[in-house]
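Q: Convert this sequence to structure tokens.
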Amino acid sequence: MPKVYIKTYGCQMNERDSEQVGQMFMDRGYSLTKEEEEADVILINTCSVRDQAEQKAIGKMGLMGRYRRENPDLVYGFMGCMAQSRGSELFGDLKHLDLVVGTQKYHRVVDHVEKIVRDREEKEMDDLRLSITDVDEEADSQNTIRDHLVKDGQATAFVSIMQGCNMRCSFCIVPDTRGKERGRPISDIVEEVKRLRDKGVREVTLLGQIVNLYGRTEFDKIDGKSPFVQLLEAVHEVEGIERIRFTSPHPIGYRDDLVAAFTYLPKLASHIHFPMQSGSDRILKRMRRPYKNKKFVEICEKMKAARPELAITTDIIVGFPGETDEDYQLTKETVARLEFDNAFVFRYSKRRNTPAAEMDEQLPERVKEERNQDLLSLVNELAQQKLRATVGSDQEVLCEGLSRYNANRLTGRTSQNKIVVFDGDQAKLSGKLFKVHIDETHGFTLYGSVI
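A:
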């Protein structure tokens, strides 16, 4: 039985896409392996959000080329966003690379791998380079990410509800790598959720580049509710699903119907990841983020009024071209005002073929790093305060299985997406919701006792 090794960089959507590819290989009689040196097929699913992610993927692929000495029939491939944006140029420096597959062609990967293997056998030429590049658009590709690798006891799963993005933020390459917005039918998504429920999944996370804009070009509003809220209501009706999460929404399209959903859909988790990017209106305009800081703050305050226990996390870019000390201070002030539960803070990184990469007033790396570390210090302080505030309380936790760092203990998450570690019987508790008394906190983890 041939073995496939898949390495994934980047976002939750990339994880979901890799899972789809893995399942398709298994359906063809392959097995998945975590050991790259024993693989017959090596695939890297790539990210293009920052240059560092691309360099990691290229470096990893370069290092793994040595395995062909032991296995001359080994097939190497890139998938995902970097594959989409760079295409055949990736073959230039990686002489062992065989396959480059873009973001709309995940469902073609197995066919391409098998074609390469067949062609090698038919040609019987060891030195013949048989490469495939497939980065063309494909209609209805959003409907091809629907199968899951579900392990015994798995409590959570990602569900891809749409692909693409119609926004054109000046720093972002995603519209070029993922294509235009296109959503799946609600009925198809609900059926997928039901299949997951039948396999023991109790929490689903709905994924989209801008998830709250789901269906706006394909489906109508009903009774003033957006297609996304209609989808939330439909998934909420699936018996056996205990929690629903979604990521990541955009301030554009975050309407009152979505805010109101948190008042009457109790399965919606009390957490949203809500990218702010900057607290300066001037920088938001340069980023082509079509909202002002006041609007972002207003949405956050409405959300907390609708669900007082709501946790909000965010993304922030520091060191964007032209960002002054005053602009940065506005960002810092907004973080302090909103008291985010956590934040991913990124130094601005040039992405080719984006307007921001050509802007004047590019900042030195030293300034970016100083602001990055300064803001992280504030974010971490706020996060620690939120965690300490839960000590002594009872929190409802969904058990996800063994702790990642301590195989003798179990782990789960609260509705606010806080990680909790506790003792218990994995066979009895995995996939279950129950109360845990929070005893202490260390780092960014809570520790407690099952009630």
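The chain has three domains: 3-134, 141-390, 394-450.
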